[in-house]
Amino acid sequence: MTVSVTAIPMLADNYSWLLKDSGTGKLGIVDPAEAAPAIAAIEAAGGRLDVIFLTHHHGDHIDGAPELKTKYGAKIVGNAGDAHRLPKLDIAVQEGDYVPFGAANARVIATPGHTIGHIAYYFGDGGLLFCGDTMFSLGCGKLFEGTAEDMYESLQKFAELPKETLVCAGHEYTQSNAKFALFVDPQNAALQARAAQVAQLRGEGKATLPVTLGVEMASNPFLRALDAASLKRLRTAKDHFS
Ligand code: ZN
Ligand code: FE
Q1: In the prediction, which pLDDT does 1 show?
Q2: Which of 4, 25, 37, 95 has the greatest number of CB atoms lying within 10 Å of its CB?
Q3: Cα dihedral sign for 211, 43, 2, 29?
């Protein structure tokens, strides 16, 4: 794998992701909510920006994109079906398309649920998944536009990827998600271990992402085939969590 990735904290709890292709020096960014922290990270990494990958149209994922495009001449990539509500796209994509980035390729995965037009980007060579607000560590995105069935199908697409894939999600929601996950699935040792790790990381002011898909498969209740007792707790969970 020639692409490395760095989290750039933005707004209250967003992560934008900076990509660097070591062979060509090309830089890319995923979901820039703000321009200023992106520019600081870009300048420190080489002072160029080639590609801006957008997962969905919410402001906390796109608002920094126009300024970055103007400053660096980067190409904006986003879902063709959502072009009417995204910054002007240079590369309009759909499910199954590949977006070249240096020596690597990002495969576009349609992941409706949080929004109808949400897409994820998967770099198969070395395993990076940029899943926006479809999946978070120990949770998934709110259903603003799609149905629960849409979200389930989208998460199942992630579940088919290699377990060593690094999950790069759009928000630092892991600690609050852990409370819900532990309520639903209290006997899960992998979840208990992840929750303890998360508490330590957040106590040190550190990011809980990226995380491997294998850890999520073992601990995220939305990726696990839950047993009957956990499903029963899941049905009562809405009385405990709003
Ligand atoms: Zn969103
Ligand atoms: Fe968001």
Answers
A1: 61
A2: 37
A3: positive
